[in-house]
Specification:
Layout: H1 2-13, E1 24-29, H2 34-45, E2 49-54, H3 58-65, E3 76-79, E4 82-86, H4 90-99, E5 105-108, E6 129-134, E7 142-147
Parallel strand pairs: 1-2, 4-5
Antiparallel strand pairs: 1-3, 3-4, 5-6, 6-7
């Protein structure tokens, strides 16, 4: 376990994806979190190849990835060397991958709920939430997209 964590940290610090395939969205989640599985299902529906990993220590994964705590949510995913935290819509991920802004990835902090939140759908309720750019250093996050 310690060797895996060390390898993960080295690869992330070099900007190298630790995924089995460059086209694979690697999703780390708690085994007991249903919304994380639902989010992964939505990503598959959007055309991503998804590999799910259950973890007993999501905080460690977030720390090793360098995620600022204020951007944390329930699951953490990696794609082509980028970090995607929480209930980020597939459209935001696709736009991020096309534009390649100067950021480590995207985050939707917390767990907003509404019919427009992938994996946190609540019929008849729309949530107002934002996807934030994950900075390379520090924790000042810039809004990437607002969803209403």
């Amino acid at each position: 376990m310690a060797l895996r964590a060390l390898l993960f940290a080295v690869l992330m610090s070099l900007g190298v994806s630790h995924t089995a395939s460059a086209e694979t969205l690697e999703v780390y989640k708690s085994a007991s979190c249903g919304c994380c599985g639902e989010w992964a299902d939505r990503m598959e529906d959007a055309g991503f190849k998804v590999v799910r990993h259950d973890s007993d220590d999501m905080n460690q994964i977030k720390r090793e990835a360098g995620l600022p705590p204020k951007l944390a949510s329930c699951h953490t995913a990696f794609y082509e060397g980028y970090l995607f935290e929480g209930h980020v819509p597939a459209g935001d991920i696709r736009r991020f991958l096309e534009e390649k802004p100067n950021a480590r990835g995207l985050a939707v902090p917390g767990m907003p709920a509404g019919e427009n939140v992938p994996g946190m759908e609540v019929e008849g309720k729309r949530a107002r939430f934002a996807s934030y750019l994950i900075p390379h250093s520090g924790d000042d996050a810039e809004v990437f997209a607002i969803h209403e």
